[in-house]
Predict the structure.
Amino acid sequence: MAEYFIKQLKASDLGWWTEAENNGKAAGNQRGVNLNKSVYPRMFPKVTAKDFTVKVTFRDGDSAEILTEDRRIKEEQKNMRLVGSKIPGADYGNLDPDDFMIMKVDGLNLTWAVVMNSVEPGLHTEVKRLLKGSKMSHITGTDRTKLTALLKGYDPELFGLGTVRPLSSSPVALPAQTDAEEAQWEDALDKMSDQEFEAWKQSISGAASLQVKKRMVKIRQASRVVTDKLRKQYNYRCQICGHDTSPAYGVPTVEAHHIEPFVKKQNHHPSNILILCPNHHRLWHAAGGSLDKTKLEVVYTNGYRESITLHQADHLVPGMRRP
C-alpha cells in the first residue's frame, strides 16, 4: 500500500528547482531535497543501500504534463537526499521556504507535488495542520484520509486518486471545449482586476486541480506583461479598424486576442497576439476569423477580408513561432 509523507521545505532544499533558485529563494549549494532521518526509514523500509534509483512522478513546471523520471536517493553529508538534475519550470518559481512537498511512496515509486502558499493559501493551511509542527511526517490513520481528500480536490490525476474535475465556481465553464469558450475564459482572466483575480482564485482553491490552476495563473501572469505593452504600442487602437474609445469616453477598451488560443498552445509571444476592439474581437470568434500572415489580412469563413495595421515590422511575421 502506498504511504504518504509531507515535508516542510527549507531554503536549502529550494536549489533543486531552477526557477526558485533563479528568483533568489534558495540558500547554499544543495541540489536536492533532504529526507528527515527519523522519517526516511518508513519511506523505503526494504532498502538498505545508501545510493539507489527510484521512479519519480511529478508535474512539469511549464506544461503541467505528468512526467516520470529516474532519480537517485543517496547519502550526502550524512543525510539521505532526493537528487538528480534540477527541476525546471516557471511555476516552481513561486516556491518559498516553509512551503510543503507532498510525497506518495509505493515501493520504489515516488510521486511528489508542492503546495505553495502564494498559489494555494487555503490548501497550504490545511497541510500545515496535518504536519502538526513537524518538519517532515509520515501521514497515517485519519490524517491520511484527510490528506487524500485534499489531494482529490488538488491534483487527483497525479496521485492516482481520480481524474481532474471541471471547476464549478469559475466565471466561465472550465475546461473550455471550443475555441470560442477558451477565448472567453482567457478574456475573463485578462480583464479581472488584481483583487477580483485573487478573490476568484481563493474561491476555487478547494476544487481546482493543480493542472487547471497552473494554467489559470500562467495566463494571468503572461497576459499582464505582454498585452499591456502591445496595447500601448498600438496607442489603444484596434489593429483592424483603428478605433480608440479613449477620446470620447475617457477609457480604452481594446483587448488582446491570441491567434492560436493560449490555453491550447501556451504561446504568449507578441507574434501570436492582435490588439482588437471588442467588436472585432467578437467578430473574429463569431465569424471564424483567421490570419493570413503573408498578406497580413484577417480572413473570415465567408471569404471577407480585412487588413491589419502593424506599428512594428517584427510584431507579426510569416512563419510565426513560439519563443
